Amino acid sequence: MLSWGRYSSNDLVNRVNPFIPYRYGYAVVPEQTPTKKIKATVTDEKGKKTKQYIDEPQPVKAFVTFSPFGDGEWLTFEIGAIPKKGMNYAFVEYKGSYVRRARLITRDEIPRMIRDNLGTSHIPYRKDFDQKSTNPFD
Fold first, then answer.
1. How far apart are CA 71 and CA 63, in angstroms?
2. Could you give the dihedral angle defined by the CA atoms of residues 119, 138, 132 and 1, in that order, rounded to the nearest 10 degrees?
3. CB within 8 A of 50, min separation 6: which ones?
4. How far is CA 10 from CA 3, 5, 32, 62, 132, in A?
5. Quick one: which of 122, 72, 134 has its CA closest to 97?
6. Rounded to 10 degrees, what is the CA torsion of 121, 125, 129, 132?
7. Fewer CB within a 10 Å sphere, N or C end of the chain?
8. What is the pLDDT of residues 54-92, one digit of tens each?
9. From residue 86, how far is each of 30, 34, 92, 115, 125 by CA, in Å?
10. Per-residue b or e along 46-57, where b marks 16 or more CB atoms closer than 10 Å to that residue's CB
11. Cα–chain-centroid distance for residue 91?
12. Which long-range contacts (CB under 8 A, 24 or more apart) does 70-78 make?
């Protein structure tokens, strides 16, 4: 069952699987976080509540590299809005497909050996990029 969780990218099973260690990796994320308009209740400084449409950041799918040789995997995680130009890189703590934490960083904060393999722009996900095998025990 635990190998099925990793194979099927089941976050809940991966989260509790004792055989998958936590890893740390780096990813290039889009310079503009994808957003979706949602209707939400907003409270102003005076305590008045109003319904408004706001932009809610959506999860991004990015290639997370964890070694200087370019090894990594495609993960989906939430990063929120990007605060300033140049912070479109993420430091990710993950276990299988379960992402525990992701933090926005600058390119200078990435170790040099990994930075050389990472690239400078976000690569959109395509199904043929994924290297997942059909055997769940690989």
1. 10
2. -120
3. 41, 42, 44
4. 10, 5, 27, 17, 14
5. 72
6. 130
7. N
8. 888 889 999 999 999 988 889 999 988 888 888 899 999
9. 11, 17, 17, 14, 21
10. eeeeeeeeeeee
11. 9
12. 70/117, 72/25, 73/131, 74/125, 74/129, 74/130, 75/27, 75/99, 77/102, 78/102
What the block records as the tokens of 135 is 């055997």
The length of the chain, given as a count of residues: 138
pTM of the model: 0.76
How far the first Cα of the chain sits from its last, in Å, is 14
Question: Which tokens hold the place of 80?
Answer: 């929120």
CB 89 within 8 A of CB 82: no
Structure tokens at 34: 């994808």
